[in-house]
Amino acid sequence: MNYQKIIDQQRTFFNSHTTKQISFRIQELKRLKKLLKKNENLLYEAIYHDFKKSEFETYTTELSIIYEDIDLAIKHVKKWARRQKVSTSLVNLPGKSYIMPEPYGTVLVIGAWNYPFQLSLCPAIAAIAAGCTVVLKPSEIPARTSAIMAQLIHQNFNSDFFTVIEGGEEETTNLLKIKFDKIFFTGSVPVGKIIYQAAAKHLTPVTLELGGKSPAIISEDVNIDMTAKRLVWAKFLNAGQTCIAPDYVMVHSSIKNDVLASIKKHIERSDYRIDNHNYTQIINDKNFDRLNHLIDPDKVYIGGKGNKEERIITPTVLDAIDFEDEIMKDEIFGPILPVISFESIDDAIQKIKKLPRPLSCYAFTKSRHTREKILREISFGGGAVNDAVMHFTEQSLPFGGIGESGIGNYHGKFGFEAFSHYKSILQKPFWIELPLKYSPYSTTKLNWIKRIMG
Ligand code: NAD
Question: Is domain 3-210+404-423 classified as CATH 1.10.1060.10?
Fold first, then answer.
């Protein structure tokens, strides 16, 4: 496929200024929503084929988020795209200053496999709202899901405006040789570094939505049952294949056994079982083997069973883990929850801070002091107090990492901003001009300038 030709055509279309019309953006967002709604069954079927993700989880964790994003963008894009008037200093009066959001241009969106629709389409929605043309490269791993996105978008959008290029490492490597005006990448830290290097060659701005080990910290004063219930949902949803899933739990030693017992109770009550069609598969054999290898049979508190043929691993909790264990070396990205106990919150914070800054962090506590300590002392992308994962659903919150967990953010208006340049303008009339800055320079002029500038 001639990628350069596709991108050149998108650039020509962008330069026609069509995408700068708000009415065009709204029309295309409506087209996308209608298309997805009309073909919802195909979407459920594709994702179930790829990793047996249930209709329930596909709707709640993928489609509902996409629909919400589209609706929010349609409702607010006019306001987001408006010029913002700002103050003008004395030296530039009688002028006026304003900030003009401007679409970056032709952008590349690279998706990850774990929420294949949402992680591809939500950044694309933000890019369309911002007035960009979009090349979307979904993850090749859920192949049917990638194919259905490509088919629907090819059939319903002008490829000069919005197109899908399917493929994996080779295709992405070739795409990255071409200059884009923005690259939005969701995926792993090692590939994020490759993307950043490729973008740097063209000085292309990036948003990198990466991963990491997100801790859940449980202090001794919590509601144990509610904590365990929320954690079990957040961890084993999508079989733990969630970038912001609690990767590991740090719990005060005085309540560890009670927390473990409560986690066990909630796992047993859940749909997360080998024989339940609502429990998602592990995406492929490679990940199944990697995860299986991380389960130390001596430390299994509950679970630890796998069915290779079905690519299912039961919700697994590992007890008596410490930071030296293999499972604490990298992001788990599967249904295994290591539990580490601590004696003092200071000690727990110090240990967490030795790892790279995580994408998320969850503080379970009733104590204001403990909550503030965790929020102030640990650096992380975003998170929740007394809950996990749900902060992702708040469109008023920017979503993104820090350090190794990413660069930039999106969701709601922040997504619009991720694809916009904020052009700053000072506008002046012709009818008056202060003579102070012009030569010939003089002490009198300088003294006036000093008085004005302060
Ligand atoms: P990945 O990095 O393997 O792949 C992501 C994308 O990069 C895919 O489209 C893939 O085709 C492409 N790719 C893979 N290798 C490449 C290479 N060598 N050169 C160029 N492109 C390449 O990630 P993944 O396995 O799809 O997703 C899992 C990771 O993504 C986890 O680390 C997870 O935490 C992270 N993630 C982050 C978020 C977030 O919002 N921050 C969301 C989901 C997943």
Answer: no
